[in-house]
Amino acid sequence: MFLTIPTLMTWTRIVAIPLIVGVFYLDIPTADRNLIATVMFVVFAATDWLDGFLARKLNQTSSFGAFLDPVADKFLVCASLLVLVHLQRADVFVALIIIGREIAISALREWMAQIGASRSVAVHMIGKVKTTVQMIAIPFLLFDGTLMGLINTHVWGTWLIWLSAILTVWSMVYYLQKAIPEIRARAK
Q1: Which residues is 151 bridged to in the sheet?
Q2: Residues 50, 60, 6, CA angle at the centre, nearest 5°?
Q3: Cα(first)–Cα(last) distance of the chain, in Å?
Q4: Helix (H, G, I), strand (E, B) or coil at 61
Q5: Burial class, 114, CB count within 10 angstroms (exposed 0-12 / middle 13-18 / buried 19+)
Q6: For each of the chain's 188 residues, which pLDDT tens digit applies?
Q7: How many beta carbons lie within 10 A of that of residue 172, not counting itself?
């Protein structure tokens, strides 16, 4: 099922990338660009939960949707991180940790699937927590201002993006530990 409602929603996360990036090239005040990009990110990121819910509810789950969903998430997060590095709102080291982990774990999962051991590196709670922290940190850093007169989103976003980098390393170590028996068995 290539064009289901949930799959189309997943595609919107990929289509959102040039839109979010493009906002920062508009000739409007910085605060307006920040707000538009933040709202867009939050709306598109929310489709991650919604498309999974609808896929189950409408019985429209598919192997293509299962493949595309995490790819769309990774594209959205990685593109947003690159924008934040460009705007000097996120450290390049954080972006390298997060993007490097995504590449490494995606490659590991692909290899584990090829050898029939994909269960070893199935999504774990630490990966979900990492993603949740990223999905909170990124809009805070995109907004880059004071929220409701109380919350300095740059400060909170910076702390949260570093926390997500720590969780990123932790989750990568977890998945590598799960894969090591298979890696050792195949290295002989």
Answers
A1: 147
A2: 35
A3: 40
A4: coil
A5: exposed
A6: 568 888 888 899 999 999 999 999 999 999 999 999 999 999 999 988 888 888 888 888 888 887 888 889 999 999 999 999 999 999 999 999 999 999 998 888 888 888 777 776 777 788 889 999 999 999 999 999 998 889 999 999 999 999 999 999 999 999 888 888 887 887 76
A7: 20
Helices 153-186, 125-143: axis angle to 10 degrees equals 150
pTM comes to 0.89
* Exposure b/e, 68-83, CB count within 10 A at least 16 = b: bbbebbbebbbbbbbb
Q: How many other CB atoms are there within 10 angstroms of residue 128's CB atom?
A: 12
Tokens of 59: 């019985």
Bridge partners of residue 146, in order along the sequence:
152
